[in-house]
Design a protein that fits this description.
By secondary structure, the chain is an alpha/beta fold. Helices cover 42% and strands 16% of the residues. α1 packs parallel to α2.
């Protein structure tokens, strides 16, 4: 029986959670018991690329779809007991403030949390309430939280703040290596054929020309990360790119540990994001060894669930839900995410299930 059939017009016990990235956005509605009402997936919602208005447009469309799928019918505002809106690109206090100001007007919840996606990753991997989270998807970022609540964050602006390691960086490194191998400036590598083949081409220099002429969008270089991982077992050049990625993850985690003075502690170090969840176990082991050189008791793990699970668990924490509710929410969301992945293959261009307009403003937030 749906909430609409029972006549529920209020949603004081609902938890609304969002995990918004550069390429996809998950939005979930749950009861405080942990029962999943609906999960919807749409396109990217990062305010860095869409602007605040574009971000909210995507989220509102997904929320409308989630409410409809849950059979909730018209709901009074505020919609939920808490709303955890965790989106990539909401990194600076002023960026979060701008997003909060606009979302607060929509009446989603009086208990509204706006942040980037790193808290969702950390919560998805540990129940301890503190630790280190390193996310590596389209970009790379890190959050450190001490047992006393102190936090360490990074700008995560890309090259201008010293970052390397997102899917785009790995893809560009692959193309650079392939081009240098092809024209004689670098060692020969299997990437010379594998990289252009991904785009239906035969020569990496042909791919370079296509990018230069904007016949292929530069943003698609991130698609090459799986190509690098697939070649890394046998190709030394690809293996070198993966080692660099591992070193960058270690550098982020080690810096957070040292700044929080957790060298002698036993922090959970949670790895997540599409790229880090795809690396082979040997790479995770290498990352663990590097981190444990700094903090010998650190426990390094790959997040067992998608970040939307962490966002939901943060929402359940906010309403003081019990452990049974959290366990139920994780189990039901894990199953629902699997269904979504079968419905929308990772190779498909993700699009919001529902939008209020077909054209979004793409003004950069910074």
């Amino acid at each position: 029986m749906t909430a609409a059939q029972t006549g529920r017009s209020r949603s004081d016990g609902l938890v609304l959670a969002v995990d918004g990235g550069n390429s996809k956005t998950d939005l979930a509605l749950l009861e405080s018991s942990g029962r999943l009402l609906s999960l919807v997936r749409g396109g990217g919602s990062s305010p860095h690329y869409l602007g605040v208005d574009g971000c909210i447009d995507v989220l509102e469309g997904l929320l409308e779809s989630a409410i409809a799928r849950a059979g909730l019918g018209p709901l009074e505002r505020p919609l939920a007991a808490t709303a955890q809106v965790l989106v990539a690109g909401a990194d600076l206090p002023e960026e979060r403030s701008a997003l909060r100001s606009e979302i607060a007007r929509l009446g989603w919840s009086d208990r509204l949390v706006i942040d980037n996606d790193t808290p969702a990753l950390l919560r998805a991997g540990t129940d301890r309430g503190w630790g280190i989270g390193v996310v590596c998807g389209a970009g790379i970022n890190c959050l450190g939280v001490a047992p006393d609540g102190r936090e360490v964050r990074f700008l995560a602006f890309g090259p201008t703040s010293g970052d390397w390691g997102g899917g785009g960086d790995v893809g560009l490194a692959a193309l650079c290596a392939a081009a240098r191998g092809a024209d004689g400036r670098g060692p020969r590598t299997a990437l010379e054929s594998a990289v252009p083949a991904h785009f239906g081409l035969t020569d990496p220099l042909e791919l370079s020309r296509a990018l230069h002429l904007r016949q292929i969008p530069a943003a698609r270089l991130g698609e090459l990360a799986p190509v690098v991982l697939a070649a890394s077992d046998e190709d030394p050049v690809a293996a070198g790119i993966v080692r660099r990625l591992a070193d960058e993850v270690i550098a982020f985690a080690a810096a957070a540990i040292c700044r929080l003075e957790l060298v002698g502690a036993d922090p959970d170090v949670v790895l997540g994001g599409r790229l880090l969840r795809s690396v082979p176990p040997s790479v995770v082991d290498a990352i663990a060894r590097g981190i444990q050189e700094v903090a010998p008791n650190a426990r390094v793990l790959v997040a067992p669930s998608e970040p939307i699970v962490g966002a939901v668990l943060l929402g359940l924490d906010a309403v003081a839900a019990d452990a049974n509710a959290s366990s139920r929410a994780r189990a039901e969301l894990d199953a629902a995410v699997t269904e979504v992945l079968f419905e929308r293959p990772a190779t498909a261009d993700p699009q919001p299930i529902a939008r209020r307009s077909s054209s979004l403003p793409r003004t950069a937030a910074r």
